[in-house]
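Because showing beats explaining, we think one record worth quoting, sequence and backbone structure tokens together, and here it is:
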Amino acid sequence: MLKSRERLSSLLVAAIVVMVATAFVIAQKRFMLRGAARPEINLKLVGSVERDSKLIPLDNSIAVNSGEIVNWVISGENSGNASAQNYKTVGHIPKGTVFIVGSATADGAKTVFSIDGGKSFSPQPMIEEKQPDGSTKQVPAPVYMYTEIRYEWSDPLAQGGKLTASYKVRVK
């Protein structure tokens, strides 16, 4: 009977040691996650309209007229405590405007476009076009169908690093 109690005590002590060790590991992981190095990219979008050879901030513009060009600039900074990896940002192409081909710029970023409200992106969105013989074939989508533009960076953005991307649209 004494040996059974000793075994039971040994098992209880072992179980308590395992539980305490497990709790310590979980607490340590939570602590490390809270204080872990993380990137934090803060983005800002600014629009301006080209008028009379000047750029007028959209905040100061009473109205934007048909035919005018709106410049969109996305800027950001990594204010976190680690480099950002494989980061992306999306710019919206507002209804009533058309993307201006060749206006997308961003150092080191790949540029892709969406024609379905941001569900899918491609360097050259394609649509089906019906042919005179009744068949269909894939052709490049016209730019008036573009709804979003996405910039994708593959190089790390270091702590304190900055990024800039821009694009233009013409008001219909």
In short: Residues 2-34 form the longest helix (33 residues).
